[in-house]
Amino acid sequence: QAKQAGRNTLRFFDPDMQAIAVRRAMLETDLRQAVKRNQLRLFYQVQVDASAKVTGVEALLRWEHPEHGMVPPSDFIPVAEEGYLIVVIGGWVLETACRQLAAWAGDPVTADWTMAVNISPLQFQQPDFVAGLEAILAATGARPRQLKLELTETLFMKEPETVRDTMCRLKTMGIRFSLDDFGTGYSSLAYLNRLPLDQLKIDQSFVRTLFEDAANAVISASIIDLGRNLGLEVIAEGVETQAHRDWLADHGCHAYQGYFYSRPLPAAQLMELLESSGSLMAGPNAG
Ligand code: C2E
Ligand code: MG
Ligand code: MG
Ligand code: MG
Where does the record place the EAL domain (predicted)? Predict the structure, then answer.
């Protein structure tokens, strides 16, 4: 009886639930101001090829909050994704990433880098997404061939034909596509070779625990096989150790990203790291 009452109390008057709702509402209000107040930052994490040569970066969003410091995207992207706010934020990310890409074009070390940008489903599904991106490319001078959009499986669950059409239009412009967090979604495999994809990205949750969880090793190896058989490049994220990298290389992985190479860094810090570390810049075979 008491337990029953407790349950009802919990359901209808849970102070934690209310606290969470209030915090969320405050977060959303704060977040709306973040773009205008110039509090968003892009960090860049290197991607390397088989010879450990840096071939590009992934742009990863941070929110430099005046009170809470550097807020990771997991704390605010889900709130932004509940509505149109993610479209505004995503637009800022694309423009900032393209401006950085154009700035790097003047340095021979970075001139050929690709820039991977995470795109939320709602952002990609905007009717003016292609036009908006064209305008950003024109304004920044970034080359579409160096832009790689990271999409997730959830995008293909609703209106897959419309999504495919949009991808094909972007593909014609030279833009490339990576399928992020592959293996963590719920969609079918049938769409894989019907979409103009260039790269499969093995989710970091499989890679980080490669040696602790036998199932994750099997899944990672299978994703590499699947990607190779479909003619796609396979990149692993969450590579934290040389052992991770070597195991993945032995199983046919093409490219790598993770703390083993570098954490995500502001552009200036990334350039400093590259200058001080010849190995990251030119790979193990250099000099
Ligand atoms: P993601 O796109 O799968 O990005 C990879 C995440 O793994 C990043 O977390 C990165 O910092 C982290 N990571 C990379 N290497 C390692 C490693 O070796 N070990 C571990 N433990 N973690 C590693 P981050 O930056 O916190 O981003 C989390 C997620 O937030 C991203 O996952 C992406 O889904 C989303 N996100 C980030 N920036 C954007 C953005 O501009 N737009 C959108 N829509 N989503 C974004
Ligand atoms: Mg990503
Ligand atoms: Mg991922
Ligand atoms: Mg992820």
Answer: 24-278
